[in-house]
Write a structure and sequence with these properties.
Elements (H helix, E strand, L loop, with lengths): L1 E5 L5 H7 L12 E4 L3 H14 L7 E4 H8 L5 E2 L2 H14 L11 H20 L4 H10 L6 H24 L1 E2 L1 H14 L6 E4 L6 H11 L4 E6 L4 H7 L14 E7 L2 H12 L8 E4 L6 H9 L7 E4 L1 E3 L4 H14 L5 E3 H8 L2 H4 L14 H17 L5 E3 H6 L1 H8 L8 H14 L10 H18 L8 H17 L10 H12 L3 E3 L8 E4 L11 E4 L18 H7 L4 H17 L3 E7 L8 H14 L8 E3 L18 H8 L2 E2 L1 H9 L1 H9 L14 H16 L15 H15 L5 H25 L4 E14 L2 E13 L2 E8 L16 H4 L8 H6 L4 H13 L6 E7 L8 H4 E3 L4 H4 L2 H15 L19 H4 L2
Parallel strand pairs: 1-7, 2-3, 2-6, 4-5, 6-7, 8-17, 8-18, 9-15, 9-16, 10-15, 16-17, 19-21, 22-23
Antiparallel strand pairs: 11-14, 12-13, 20-21, 21-22, 23-24
Helix pairs in contact: 1-2, 3-8, 4-5, 4-7, 5-8, 5-22, 6-7, 8-9, 11-12, 13-14, 20-21, 27-28, 27-34, 29-30, 30-31
């Protein structure tokens, strides 16, 4: 055996090449083993660059590949999901099972993975099962009783699992390692073999390396780095005397967030040569696509190369399947929960399914599907109180289909739309409504993905191929696993298992051929040397990554000689030390905020620099990445009226809401009513204030409809009818089984309306009280202006008209009119000099508007009309004064009618005056939807 310990300045790949034995251009008799797979690509490329001719390369393996090649037995290799299935059955038979009793396979799955990781570690380290069972009694360790019980259960898992593997002919990674370690002691390898770049070793790996090192054909190459001396001692090898070498130049960058790091790196890359001497290291895969979009894409596809794992759960393909699961999971019998349905159909993969109509002109058009689903979204948004709908209702609704057709530029028929929707529903949602077993679930999921691939633009999206390949591979593993034939009682079991399994899967970006800047994870950099090193997210908790999900207590691990989280940190620090000290330039980026702090690696490097230079202030070593943020709002400019705007306003029909909007903010009126801009409404699933208002108005409308045109007396008010009506409304909108916020809202509305009827309505009824109108719309011309309004309720009581507007809010400040403040307008005519008096003293003109509108339409004197708001949102209704807010409280206020009428006419004239712009003076910006447009 020949052992070599190379310094940081020596490239491991070139050192391996130096020890290869060749027969001309044939290197195939050599075996080279690295810890990971990536150095193999670099070694082959290095040999090709040296010889500049075709060669037969050596046999190059990662250590796992090497073990698989030597493993003598043909056995079924267990995936973690298979192991979890076996452990689940064992858990059902033990006296003290892990977790809660009666766990289903999907509930046990993640616990099973943790148990499997622990027993695999025990097995590869050669720990005998009895040592686990007896450690609480044979050691000096204090182990709590509960932990002792868990160790006894773990002993059962450990013993039974590998017995089953032996009986059934199953194999695992640790079984293969131990078998190869035993085999090599009997049948050594006689051809040249090079073991290069190893650091942390399991007991089985140590046995393998010691056995191989006894051969004269073996060469073992280690790299100098932090902690390597301890490894060499474990292998009884002589350590290397430290060699003074040139240190790299370190550069530190502090950013407030992840994107700041990426933008800074992007600026630096403009001056970097795009070759494989440069590496970008990503300890966290969360940063990959920010890096891809902002820093790599501008370089061009031939100038970078990605090789790292990326979580499947962060892909759009997973979000597509996950949103489909949400649709099916939230169904109420055969009805879909509309917010989840809309989220699914608006997913880019769904809404870009090709439309195949009955005419060739519409073949394969994804834009038609987008229009269809966006119109469906608008349709349900306008009926936002409705929360459930069946697939058949969507497909067969002719009114909905006719509405969609109006927005299409082709001669598509209602049947075309119905058939298209039915096909999409059949190929996606209906496929997920039932499964025979787990294998059937996996099969149907693959069928859905195949449908999306064949019939949508999804395959044109970046990275769709690696995403779908990894996804389908994962589904095949589920299908072929020992859980494949399990049937769950509830459909949620399949979904839970899928989500938990996929959360552990990663997409392997292989990153070949080698070209351009390399983008690697931390472990992918093992054994490789680069001149320029850029590392992002050098933050504590990310690098080194500290996580221990083991069920074995740390004290027990130490007593058994098992690796722990500190060994994992030591591994990361070693490979980074080798990477950094083999480089010329090292750029380290980290986020610093109230929630995250720099990694200890940053702190150590800064401290070493402080000691060398004798300088305590580290701020000069760190470049701070900052954003220029302007927090001051600009003052919007007045908007002048054009001739087109003037003509529009002359024909505009004014509502009380439009006038109140103008009163609050002239710009808001311009954007909303003149330009017709509306904030897009969405169905969030949460109960919005407007939804509550709609429910209350619907309930009161239905309750009082039988009384229209009839005398209403206290005896006619039946409180229980409120319960029946509200229950029916909620059942129609939300289904029969109410829960959570909807359940509480129903009770709250019933309670509040009962109190309204009992403590306000009944005491207010007289012997001549009639309801003469509900939810009525009125239109008329008034002083040359078109006005309209929708009145909630109109009563006639003792010969007087009561106009009622329901408010579900309890706040009345936004409805106030300060009559005393209007006093100056009695003396002077209203003009622009005293215009501010209006906005200072009038918050809403709605009731006045109703009074004028109703008087004009019905030809009734305003002195015979009362207008009021009923604030139904107020708590503790006990009498009329609690909720009633009238326009005129007494005759003194009624005397202001003429002034208020003049104010309304003045505002209408002002709005339609071509020479008066829409001004920006307002205090109504806090809840405005147009602040980004006007710049406040």
């Amino acid at each position: 055996m020949k052992t070599h310990i190379i310094p940081h300045s020596t490239d491991l790949i070139s050192e391996v090449y130096r020890h290869l034995i060749s027969d001309g251009r044939d290197y195939s008799t050599n075996i080279v083993v690295f810890p990971g797979r990536r150095p193999a690509h670099f070694l082959r490329k290095y040999i090709a660059n040296i010889l500049k001719t075709a060669v037969i390369p050596p046999q190059i393996f990662s250590i796992d590949e090497f073990i698989e090649t030597l493993y003598p037995e043909v056995r079924r290799k267990l995936e973690p999901i298979d192991a979890s299935a076996i452990l689940y059955k064992i858990n059902q038979s033990v006296k003290q099972p892990f977790g809660k009793s009666g766990m289903s396979p999907d509930e046990f799955f993640q616990l099973g993975l943790r148990i499997f990781n622990d027993i695999e570690e025990l097995y590869i380290e050669g720990i005998e099962p009895l040592k686990i069972r007896d450690i609480g009694y044979t050691s000096d360790l204090f182990i709590p009783q509960k932990s002792l019980e868990n160790l006894q259960t773990l002993f059962t898992f450990y013993s039974e699992f590998y017995k089953i593997c032996e009986e059934k002919g199953y194999s695992t990674r640790s079984i293969a390692y131990r078998a190869v370690a035993a085999m090599l002691t009997v049948n050594p390898i006689n051809q040249p073999i090079i073991l290069a770049g190893f650091f942390a070793l399991t007991k089985s790996e140590k046995v393998i390396i010691k056995t191989l090192s006894s051969s004269d054909n073996a060469v073992i190459i280690f790299q100098q780095g932090t902690g390597i001396d301890d490894i060499l001692k474990e292998l009884n090898l002589q350590s290397l005397n430290p060699i003074a070498e040139a240190k790299p130049q370190y550069h530190f960058y502090k950013s407030p967030d992840t994107h700041g790091q990426v933008f800074a790196l992007s600026a630096i890359l403009k001056d970097v040569k795009y070759d494989i001497d440069t590496v970008i290291v990503l300890p966290s895969s969360d940063t990959l696509f920010a890096l891809y979009n902002h820093a790599l894409t501008p370089l061009g596809g031939d100038n970078y190369n990605i090789s790292m794992g990326y979580p499947i759960v962060r892909t759009p393909l997973y979000s597509f399947i996950n949103s489909l699961i949400d649709v099916v999971s939230s169904m109420n019998e055969d009805r879909l929960y509309i917010p989840d349905y809309l989220k699914f159909v608006l997913h880019p993969y769904t809404k870009n399914i090709f439309f195949y109509g009955s005419r060739s002109a519409t073949e394969g058009r994804a834009d038609i599907t987008r229009i269809i689903f966006h119109r469906i979204t608008e349709w349900f948004t306008h009926n936002r109180a409705r929360m459930f709908v069946s697939l058949n209702d969507i497909e067969m609704d002719k009114t909905l289909n006719d509405d969609i057709i109006k927005y299409l530029d082709t001669d598509i028929t209602s049947d075309d739309i119905k058939n298209h929707l039915k096909t999409i529903h059949d190929q996606t949602i209906r496929k997920f409504m039932s499964f025979a077993d787990t294998q059937d679930f996996a099969k149907k999921t693959i069928e859905i993905l195949t449908y999306i691939y064949d019939h949508s633009t999804a395959k044109l999206h970046p990275f769709f191929y690696p995403f779908s390949e990894a996804f389908i591979n994962s589904l095949n593993i589920i299908s072929n696993s020992l859980l494949g034939e399990i049937s769950f009682h509830n459909i949620s079991g399949y979904f839970n298992l899928f989500r938990k399994f996929i959360s552990s899967r990663r997409i392997p970006f292989e990153g070949t051929p080698l070209q351009g800047i390399q983008v690697l994870g931390v472990l992918e950099t093992r054994n490789l040397r680069f001149k320029n090193v850029f590392v992002l997210d050098v933050n504590e908790g990310i690098i080194p990554y500290s996580s221990d999900i083991s069920l074995i207590p740390l004290k027990v691990k130490n007593a058994l000689g098992l690796p722990n989280y500190k060994d994992n940190e030591r591994l990361t620090e070693y490979y980074l030390d080798v990477l950094f000290k083999g480089a010329e330039q090292v750029h380290l980026f980290y986020v610093e905020s109230a929630k995250v702090e720099p990694s200890r690696i940053i702190e150590r490097l800064l401290w070493e620099r402080q000691k060398e230079e004798g300088y305590l202030d580290i701020s000069e070593y760190i470049k701070t990445i900052q954003y220029k943020i302007v927090l001051t709002g600009s003052t919007p400019k007045d908007i002048n009226k054009t001739k087109e705007v003037f003509d529009f306003l002359k024909d505009f029909s004014f509502s009380p809401t439009a006038l109140d909007t103008y009163l609050r903010c002239e710009h808001q009126f311009y954007y909303q009513y003149v330009l017709g801009l509306r904030e897009r409404e969405e169905i969030s699933g949460n109960i919005e204030r407007m939804d509550i208002g709609s429910l209350v108005h619907s309930g009161l409308m239905e309750y009082f409809t039988p009384f229209v045109g009839k005398k209403i007396t206290p005896e006619t008010i039946v409180l229980n009818r409120v319960d029946e009506i509200i229950d029916r409304i909620f059942r129609d909108l939300y289904g029969a089984d109410l829960s959570g916020a909807v359940y509480l809202l129903r009770h709250q509305i019933i309670y509040q309306l009962r109190r309204f009827l009992e403590f306000y309505q009944i005491p207010r009824l007289s012997h001549s009280h009639y309801i003469i109108g509900l939810e009525k719309t009125y239109k008329t011309n008034w002083n040359g202006f078109r006005i309209n309004g929708h009145i909630d309720r109109i009563d006639r009581c003792n010969g007087r008209i009561n106009i009622i507007d329901y408010k579900t809010s309890s706040r009345e400040s936004y409805l106030n009119i300060r009559f005393k403040g209007l006093e100056p307008l009695k003396i002077n005519n209203i003009d622009q000099s005293n215009r501010h008096i209006i906005t200072d003293n009038i918050k809403s003109i709605q009731l006045l508007f109703y009074m004028i509108l109703f008087s004009a339409v019905e030809d009734i004197d305003v002195d015979n009309i009362e207008c009021m708001f009923l604030l139904l949102g107020k708590s503790g209704i006990s009498n009329s004064s609690d909720i009633e807010k009238t326009l005129f409280f007494n005759q003194e206020q009624r005397d202001y009618f003429k002034i208020l009428s003049d104010v309304m006419l003045f505002l209408l004239n002002e709005i339609t005056d071509l020479n008066i712009p829409f001004r920006a003076e307002t205090t109504a910006c806090s809840n405005c939807s147009y602040t980004f447009i006007c710049g406040t």
